[in-house]
Amino acid sequence: MGDAIRFRDDEPHEEPAVTLDAFLGQSNATAVRLEPDEDARALLPHLDRLSLIEVAFPKFRDGRGYSAARILREAGYTGELRAAGDVLLDQIVPMRRCGFDSFAPETTLDLEAVERALYRYDYVYQKTVDIRPPVWRIRNG
Fold it and tell me: What InterPro entries does UniProt report for this protein, alphabetically (predicted)?
């Protein structure tokens, strides 16, 4: 997971994401879309051949996609992990910390506001899958 943040239209993926059921029944797909009620762990045996996992956020209040992202990143997934749907500016930072590196929001976000949000705070307090060390580790070595 690199530092670059991407939006869907920056670098379109070669193939559209298929549903989880279609992916599990189709051996050649490299992009899959997870819905909130689907278990990300079903993808774990296939992570090495996936270049895109798109996680659906039909409503901003639904946080199950955060768990899916963390499961996938902690299992070693290094491909594009895209949050798609009702993605709000306030969610970009926690989504990045959980492992999302690509976003497909339903409404256009102000890119300057996204940059300000991403770099507003110099330190973080929780350990997550991103590369930023928590402040307690910095202070205590």
Answer: UCP030820
Give mean pLDDT in consecutive 10-residue pieces for the chain, a chain of 141 residues. Answer: 51 76 87 95 95 92 89 94 89 86 86 80 69 75 70
- The string of DSSP letters for 54-78 reads EEEESSTT--HHHHHHHHHHHTT--
Q: What is the identity of the amino acid at 137?
A: R
* CATH label, 6-140, candidates 2.40.128, 1.10.8, 3.40.50, 1.10.1740: 3.40.50
Domains of the chain: which residue ranges?
Answer: 6-140
The answer to whether residues 82 and 54 touch, using CB atoms and an 8 Å cutoff, is yes
Distance CA 64, CA 36 (A): 6
